[in-house]
Amino acid sequence: MNKNLFELRECALKEIENARKPSEIAQLKSKYLGKKSKISEVMSSLKNLPIEERRETGKLCNAIKKQIAEALKTKSEQILSESSFDIDITMPINKERGSLSPITIVGNEVCDILQKMGFAIVSGPEIEDEYHNFDALNIPASHPARDMQDTYWLGSNKLLRTHTSPCQVRAMERYGAPLRIAAPGRCFRNEDIDACHENTFFQLEGMCIDKNISIPNLIYVMRTILSEIFAQDVQVRLRPGYFPFVEPGFELDIKCLICGGEGCPTCKGSGWLELCPCGMVHPNVLRISNIDPDEYSGFAFGVGLTRLAMMKYHINDIRVFNTCNLEELDQFGIV
Ligand code: FA5
């Protein structure tokens, strides 16, 4: 009996040594250690043996089982460590592919247009401090304009930036004048949400400071962005707008491309959508960032990228961007 067991062990160790695949290891495990294996058969017949022989054979069975199990484990680890992934790069992809969000697409397009005009792309933190979000933009603590944007305060003078305008301050601090920058990014406001207002949305800040910059320069840049983005005639209107960091300030509205100006929930029935406020940089803002307003002037604008994407891709409700509904997102190529 014991001679048979030794032969079985030799046979098992040899087969394990020759194994090359995890599936072969699984087969050998079942063959030598499974319920129907030779060793299991011997162990269940131990009860029929005389007591001395039973003890000796039982011990041997256990020792052989242990040796085979260890050999299987070692070989299995060796196979895994030597295996490389089999990738067939010619296999067709049958999974749905993702795509860029319309906001990313228009954001990249606006950046490309501005880069061609010499603007550098910069960024700033989403968690801002009060100084860059308000004070340095000529909005001191007591200023009523702080209420124009409902702020998520985080404590210790920190907040979620309400607009991308702090990026102009950081750029002035870092690079001084002359300066041409564009800063796309996410903004946060504690807003009532509707078809064209979200509490999380994207803007792109633009700023140009140099000698003799005036309103025609601003209008040229606005016109270039809109004509290249829409590649079709879109109606816009410029009207006076108040922002403490520009003087004069303007609101640039676009005729709603969802309803063609007739009035719909997207434009709140007015036929127009506020898109890109802008203006000439207030001398105080230049002064605060150590730029001499007697030597330099500039313009700045803050285009609503999310609304720009809505107009370009005819998305009638801003809430769709933050939804997790894949079917809804799929219609805009967002997933
Ligand atoms: C500002 O945020 C100014 N910082 C823009 C600016 C920059 C003015 C430089 C002058 C010079 P306003 O709050 O209007 O302005 O927002 C700018 C644009 O962001 C809006 O016209 C709109 O297109 C978009 N926007 C504002 N709030 C929301 C919102 N809750 N949801 C979606 N888009 C919004």
Describe it.
It contains 11 helices and 11 strands. By secondary structure, the protein is α+β, with helices and mostly antiparallel strands. It has 2 domains: 2-82; 102-330, Bira Bifunctional Protein, Domain 2 (BirA Bifunctional Protein, domain 2, 2-Layer Sandwich). The strands form 2 sheets. Strands 1, 5, 6, 7, 8, 9, 10 and 11 form an 8-stranded mixed sheet that branches. The protein has a 3-stranded antiparallel sheet with strand order 2-4-3. A hairpin with a 2-residue loop joins strand 3 and strand 4 (158-160). The model has no long low-confidence stretch (mean pLDDT 91).
First CA to last CA: what distance?
Answer: 67 Å
Strand portion:
15-25%
Mean pLDDT, as a whole number? 91
Spans of at least 5 consecutive residues with low confidence: none
What count of domains describes the coordinates? 2
Helical fraction equals 25-40%
The H-and-E topology, N to C, reads as: HHHHHEEHEEHEEHEEEEHEHH
Quote the CATH topology of the largest domain: BirA Bifunctional Protein, domain 2
**How many DSSP helices?**
11
The number of distinct β-strands equals 11
The main pleated sheet reads as:
8 strands, mixed
In this entry the ligands are: adenosine-5'-[phenylalaninyl-phosphate]
CATH class of the largest domain: Alpha Beta
The rough form would be described as: elongated
Summing up helix and strand content along with how strands pair, one would put the structural category as alpha+beta
CATH architecture descriptor name of the largest domain: 2-Layer Sandwich
